[in-house]
C-alpha cells in the first residue's frame, strides 16, 4: 500500500494538499472547529464529565440537588414569607422556569470563562483548536440542564400545562438566544481570563446579580410599576436574560389554566410585551455578542500558551 502524501517540512501545503484537507501545523477552521473537529469535541466533553464527578458519591444527581435547594429556598423566602405566591398564580412554575434559565446561563458563562485556564496542561503542551474548550463546557452545561428541564416539564404538567405551538416556539427562541448570547460572552471572558485571572471573579459577580436583574423571582409588571417609562426600564427590558426568562414563562407558565383564569380578570399580571416579548431584540443582541466574542477569541488564541 502506498503511504498517504505528507506535507513537506517547513513549507505550507500546496493547493492540491489543501484540497485534500491538509493544513499546516497550528492552522484550523476557526469558529467552525466545533463542527469540523467533532471527534475531539466529544473527547473533551467526556473528559470534563469524568473530571467533574471523580470521587463524587452523588454524581449526576447534583444536577437535581442544586436547583432543588435553590427552588425551595427562594420559594419559602419569597413565595411564603413575602407572599408572592398569593399575587402570582402557579408561582412554583413561574419561579422554577426562571431558575433553570439563570442556572444554565451561570454554568455556561462560568465554565466557558475558565475553559482555557482550566485546560492549561492541554493548551500549553499540545496543539488543539482552542474553540473546542468553551464549546465543550457549553455541552457539559446542557447535560446538567436536561434533568432540570425534565423536572420543570413535570411540574408544569401538574399545574395543568399542555404543550402548544406558541410554547414550543417560545422555548426554542429562548434557548437560542441564551446559548448564542452566553457563548459570545464566554469567549470574550475566556480570552481575557487567560491574561487576567481577575476576570473569573468578575464573572461570578455577574452570575450572582443575574438572578435579581431578571424576572426570576418577581414579575416584570412589578418593575414597570416602580420604574416604568424611564430609561432604566427600557434597559431592563432589553437585557437578554430578561427576554429569555420571559420566553420560558410563556413556554411553561403563561398558558396553565390557573394563569389563564387570573389573567382574564387581571391582565396586569403579564409583561407589557406579552406573549413572545422582545425576542427579536434579544436575538439581535445575542448574535452581535457572539460575533464580537468570536473575533476577540480568534485574535487572542495564539497567545494562550504564552499567557498560561
The radius of gyration computed from the alpha-carbon positions, rounded to a whole number of angstroms, is 22 Å
Secondary structure category: mainly alpha
Count of alpha/pi helices: 16
Low-confidence stretches: 1-7, 17-22
For the record, give the distance between the C-alpha atoms at the N and C termini, rounded to a whole number.
43 Å
The main sheet comes to: none
Provide the helix percentage.
Answer: 55-70%
Q: What is the average per-residue confidence, as pLDDT, rounded to a whole number?
A: 84
User: How much of the residues is beta strand, in percent?
Assistant: under 5%
What is the β-strand count? Answer: 0
Sum up the overall morphology in one term. globular
- SSE ordering: HHHHHHHHHHHHHHHH
How many structural units, i.e. domains?
1
InterPro entries: ABC2_TM, ABC2_TM_bact-type, ABC_2_transport
GO molecular function, one term: ABC-type transporter activity
Subcellular location: Cell inner membrane; Cell membrane
Domain ABC transmembrane type-2: 58-300
